[in-house]
């Protein structure tokens, strides 16, 4: 799905913030506080710059103990850190959104978070199933499953056939469902460590391997762009990455070509595809 008025990056980051909140059993009010904060600090973009050494969705600072640069630029990590600090604030649930946000952020402009409360509530409501609109028609509703550097591509590798596209990313980076479908496998798998397989209309199956943790179960109906797992380094893997595989009527196909044929922006630059 995509959120009305927001692009794919902002939608993906908002979905990650809400998904982490759900995983940590944070009430919806806390998710609203988190989204309002990210709207104020970064407009839901994972910024690599900011005031002094501020970074990421929440403009957290390595020098203030929020984590390393790499950690803060991982939306799952930064969201977890925000919620951890929010839950430690006594009585945050009864505070105004702007006060709860400022208790975590300690901003020079504490009232600014309240300006985004209405938008944050709309986003959280949408991500909980209301007022969503489908993924854009361009690309046939297919979305890129994670953000990262494409490394080993589809084709022969070390005398064997590599059946998918590897996308390197930090552990715990969100993995999204590439298209609407039904989960047919979710759990341990030989070689893949931990995988998810989703069946889509038209005889297409997508595979997501080496996951750190899965967020879906067999039988779940998922939407394009929904967080289904996190990048990991399980199984036969030499570094944190997503192994993304597409089977069309039982036959593996090149994911990069598959997306290109559907008019979707490529999964990676051709120069990096077989790195």
UniProtKB/TrEMBL annotation:
Domain (M23ase beta-sheet core) spans: 161-255
GO terms, molecular function:
metalloendopeptidase activity
Q: Tell me the InterPro entries matching this sequence.
A: Cell_wall_metabolism_enzyme, Dup_hybrid_motif, M23ase_b-sheet_dom
The regions listed as transmembrane in this protein's record are none
Q: Which domain of life is it from?
A: Bacteria
Q: Which residues form the signal peptide?
A: none
Q: Tell me what this protein is called.
A: M23 family metallopeptidase
Q: Which organism does this sequence originate in?
A: Saccharopolyspora rhizosphaerae
Phylogenetic placement of the source organism = Bacteria, Bacillati, Actinomycetota, Actinomycetes, Pseudonocardiales
């Amino acid at each position: 799905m995509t959120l009305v008025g927001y692009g794919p990056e902002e939608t993906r980051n908002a979905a990650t913030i809400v998904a982490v909140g759900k995983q940590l059993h944070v009430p919806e009010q806390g998710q609203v506080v988190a989204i309002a904060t990210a709207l104020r600090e970064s407009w839901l973009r994972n910024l690599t710059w900011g005031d002094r050494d501020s970074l990421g969705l929440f403009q957290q600072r390595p020098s203030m103990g929020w984590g390393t640069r790499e950690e803060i630029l991982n939306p799952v990590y930064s969201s977890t850190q925000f919620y951890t600090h929010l839950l430690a604030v006594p009585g945050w649930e009864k505070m105004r959104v702007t006060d709860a946000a400022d208790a975590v952020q300690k901003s020079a402009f504490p009232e600014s978070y309240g300006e985004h409360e209405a938008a944050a509530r709309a986003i959280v409501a949408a991500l909980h199933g209301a007022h969503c609109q489908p993924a854009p028609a361009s690309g046939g509703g297919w979305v890129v499953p994670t953000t990262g550097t494409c490394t080993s591509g589809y084709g022969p590798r070390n005398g064997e056939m590599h059946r998918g596209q590897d996308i390197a990313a930090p552990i715990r980076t969100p993995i999204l469902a590439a298209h609407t479908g039904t989960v047919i496998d979710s759990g341990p798998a030989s070689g893949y460590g931990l995988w998810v397989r989703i069946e889509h209309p038209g005889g297409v199956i997508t595979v997501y391997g080496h996951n750190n943790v899965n967020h879906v179960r067999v039988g779940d109906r998922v939407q394009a762009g929904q967080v289904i797992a996190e990048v990991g380094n399980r199984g036969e893997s030499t570094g944190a990455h997503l192994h993304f595989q597409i089977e069309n009527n039982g036959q593996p196909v090149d994911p990069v070509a598959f997306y290109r044929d559907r008019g979707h922006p490529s999964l990676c630059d051709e120069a990096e595809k077989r790195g």
